[in-house]
């Protein structure tokens, strides 16, 4: 019966995490606003979010416990985006007005005409939403703008790069995340210390922008934030996910590789004065996408790190051919079996400190020596 209690505990904890965002309305329902962490430069910032309508909690439902969580999960499944809501966004003395799309999303591009403080990296964007027949809704969200000393942009895949996923093993992934002990969670060994080292740089004060990309939909945003917090991974500034937008006109979500390439182009244009590192895995299309990026930006990409997630000889040969295609550039494609190899290469290029390298080595060794 031990397995039953483990899975019952898993179901309860998973339901609680999925339901958590719904508790902000105290069960009253109505129109809600969920902004996502923003990012930008001292010339422009981007803020994305969603406005949606959700049902109220029934009076017979208790205020806490599994029944409440189950009701909140149900409310979350059936909430609907609110189209054409007016969204006013202000950051410092800069302001922009726009409306939500048919799925309730807004994606604001706000030019910065009045300078933001340069001595802080995180700025507050104030948001006011006006929806017909509802009182104005006020909220705020953090926006990340790299400090002047930031010298490197890091763009990383999430799925099978930062965390174990496996398209056919989502339940196992969730089980490892919410039930098993911290050293057995879904993050690859050494990932937290590696990304902390990249964030801080050789000086350990760089506060570099790290941008994460996932194939998943925006609906899993909170769960990914929980995963990053549990595993001590720098939170971003932003998690880029896909709006699947499945409909009769478009029955399939946009291809993941097209989504990723567009985001990389957008980030390289935004942070046009920074070199870049790309991190991905060998299991999907990352090596091919990243190779095309290097060819398009031959002077911008310092390194491509590909985490080897299987031992398929044909796949390794294909990646070797891609590596050969980049031999004439200043970018090296590194196929790495673990975080230590990535950290060693980054240290050799002056991109992380010796303390950062040592932290990755310690964490990987601790994982291998931990009881199973």
TrEMBL record:
Residues 153-308 form the Phosphatidate phosphatase APP1 catalytic domain. InterPro entries: APP1_cat (IPR019236), Mg2+_PAP (IPR052935). This is Phosphatidate phosphatase APP1 catalytic domain-containing protein. The lineage of its organism: Bacteria, Pseudomonadati, Pseudomonadota, Gammaproteobacteria, Oceanospirillales. It comes from the Bacteria.
């Amino acid at each position: 019966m031990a397995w039953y209690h483990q899975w019952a505990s898993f179901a309860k904890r998973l339901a609680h995490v999925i339901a958590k965002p719904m508790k902000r309305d105290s069960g009253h329902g109505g129109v809600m606003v969920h902004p996502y962490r923003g990012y930008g430069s001292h010339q422009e910032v981007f803020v994305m979010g969603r406005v949606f309508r959700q049902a109220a909690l029934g009076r017979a439902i208790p205020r806490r416990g599994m029944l409440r969580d189950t009701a909140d999960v149900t409310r979350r499944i059936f909430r609907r985006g609110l189209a054409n809501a007016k969204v006013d966004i202000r950051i410092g003395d800069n302001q922009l007005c726009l409306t939500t799309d048919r799925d309730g999303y807004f994606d604001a591009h706000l030019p910065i005409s009045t300078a933001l403080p340069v001595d802080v990296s995180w700025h507050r964007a104030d948001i006011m939403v006006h929806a017909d027949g509802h009182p104005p809704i006020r909220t705020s969200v953090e926006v990340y703008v790299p400090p002047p000393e930031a010298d490197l942009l890091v763009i990383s895949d999430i799925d099978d790069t930062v965390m174990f996923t496996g398209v056919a093993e989502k339940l196992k992934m969730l089980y490892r995340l919410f039930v098993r002990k911290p050293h057995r969670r879904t993050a690859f060994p050494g990932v937290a210390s590696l990304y902390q080292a990249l964030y801080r740089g050789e000086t350990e004060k760089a506060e570099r922008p790290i941008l994460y990309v996932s194939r998943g939909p925006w609906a899993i945003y909170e769960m990914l934030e929980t995963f990053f917090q549990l595993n001590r991974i720098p939170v971003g500034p932003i998690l880029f996910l896909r709006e699947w937008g499945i409909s009769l006109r478009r029955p399939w979500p946009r291809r993941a590789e097209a989504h990723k390439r567009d985001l990389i182009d957008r980030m390289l244009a935004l942070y046009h004065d920074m070199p870049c590192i790309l991190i991905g895995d060998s299991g999907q299309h990352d090596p091919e996408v990243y190779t095309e990026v290097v060819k398009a930006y031959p002077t911008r990409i310092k390194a491509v790190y590909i985490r080897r997630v299987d031992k398929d000889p044909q796949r390794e040969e294909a990646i070797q051919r891609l590596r050969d295609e980049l031999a004439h550039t200043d970018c090296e494609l590194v196929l790495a079996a673990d975080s230590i190899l990535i950290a060693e290469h980054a240290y050799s290029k002056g991109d992380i400190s010796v303390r950062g390298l040592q932290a990755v080595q310690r964490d990987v060794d601790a994982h291998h020596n931990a009881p199973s």
